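Researcher: Here's the sequence for the chain we discussed earlier.
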Amino acid sequence: MALRFLGIWPNTPDDGSPTIWLDDTSGDLIIQSWKADEATVREAQEVGSVPGHSTDIPEHETVILSGAP
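Model: Thanks. This is the structure I predict for it:
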């Protein structure tokens, strides 16, 4: 893994720092951010993604917000 820092939320407080990195080896994005609230998760599930794809969120995944909660 070779992470490269891409950015941080502007004017972030010290105790909450949404940040994004790129793994130069795999191309994966690593994102630290606020967890989405239940209403946001439900709305994302209602909107869905591609036809036939489950909107359930597996235990190893979560929904995040890129802006302040």
